[in-house]
């Protein structure tokens, strides 16, 4: 189950609802991270929306704008004026004009506390980047989201081209035409924009070597960890599922991330633990169970080893800083 947050932008109306469960009489507890679901209400019916951060501030309270949410859609945030520090999965990202963030479904994002800045948001459902046709020959038209940058700073002609693309999509969301035609227009524009961002990212990585077999193995491991981290904590489980030896998997992870496979798995579990501690009211025992620990004490020991403090201390410190 998820919360739904919708922001009133132009003709698109959004609202926030919390999924809660009783903790005691007259008290409710948030048992999951607040999700932002792309769900515009009539008359806005498009699967892509473009609006500025300034628009968002005018239509929502300061608390809502600065709240932290987990996205169920993809989003681009391009800073157009001023500087700010946004936070993605507890990682502060310093942004200047030309900074562009690509936020994937499942990530936790916060616009930060800075107010003297503006930018453009592009929100769209994941399925909107798929080709209209499902014929096998057309699968190459789909956008490879893994090639997109997490954060890229654009300048010069690259920045102008990207900004022109976003502004054109913004204008075209208001075109008076059949919705299928508008969707087709926006889909092609979005594909072109994302392909351009992937190319720009590739240029920035031009000095990196061609992906080796070891790095390819790491990518498969990384994807499997994302799917199974809450159930599988042992390297052997992943090696067995992928058909690798533990040694070959260890070499692959070292090549991809410069760390051991065990550390990589632990880091992913730790990230989810932090998300749940800060953005839900679940007890430490409930979080431990959700993350595959048989005993809460084992989870607490694990978390203190990884984060340097107890789960309760981390929750208290982070919430005090929000």
Name some characteristics of this structure.
five-stranded mixed beta sheet; five-stranded antiparallel beta sheet; 322 residues; alpha+beta; 17% strand; 43% helix; disordered N terminus
Describe this structure in words.
With 322 residues, the chain is of the alpha+beta class. It has 11 helices and 12 strands. The strands form 3 sheets. The chain has a 5-stranded mixed beta sheet with strand order 3-5-10-7-8, with no helix packed on it. The protein has a 5-stranded antiparallel beta sheet with strand order 4-11-6-9-12. Strands 1-2 form a two-stranded antiparallel sheet. Helix 3 packs antiparallel against helix 4 (179-204), helix 8 (261-279) crosses helix 10 and helix 8 crosses helix 11 (311-321).
């Amino acid at each position: 189950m998820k919360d739904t947050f919708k922001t009133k932008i132009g003709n698109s109306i959004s609202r926030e609802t919390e999924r809660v469960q009783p903790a005691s009489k007259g008290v409710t507890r948030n048992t999951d991270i607040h999700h932002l679901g792309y769900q515009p209400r009539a008359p806005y019916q498009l699967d892509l929306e473009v609006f500025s951060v300034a628009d968002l501030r005018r239509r929502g309270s300061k608390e809502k704008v600065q709240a932290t949410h987990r996205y169920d859609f993809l989003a681009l945030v391009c800073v157009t004026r001023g500087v700010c520090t946004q936070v993605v999965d507890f990682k502060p990202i310093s942004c200047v004009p030309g900074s562009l963030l690509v936020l994937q479904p499942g990530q936790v994002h916060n616009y930060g506390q800075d107010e003297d800045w503006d930018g453009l948001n592009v929100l769209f459902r994941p399925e909107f980047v798929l080709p209209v046709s499902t014929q096998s020959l057309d699968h190459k038209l789909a956008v490879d989201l893994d090639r997109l940058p997490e954060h890229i700073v654009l300048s010069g002609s690259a920045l102008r081209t990207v900004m022109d693309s976003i502004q054109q999509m913004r204008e075209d969301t208001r075109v008076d035409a059949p919705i299928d035609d508008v969707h087709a227009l926006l889909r092609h524009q979005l594909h072109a924009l994302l392909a351009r961002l992937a190319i720009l990212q590739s240029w920035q990585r031009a000095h990196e070597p061609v992906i080796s077999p070891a790095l390819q193995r790491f990518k498969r491991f990384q994807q499997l960890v994302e799917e199974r981290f809450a159930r599988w904590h042992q390297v052997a489980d992943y090696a067995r599922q992928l058909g690798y030896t533990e040694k070959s998997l260890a070499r692959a992870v070292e090549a991809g991330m410069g760390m051991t496979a065990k550390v990589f798995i632990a880091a992913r579990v730790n990230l989810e633990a932090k998300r749940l501690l800060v953005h839900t009211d679940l007890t430490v025992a409930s979080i431990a169970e959700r993350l595959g620990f048989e005993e809460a004490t084992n989870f607490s020991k694990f978390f203190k080893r990884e984060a340097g403090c107890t789960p309760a201390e981390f929750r208290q410190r982070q919430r005090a800083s929000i």
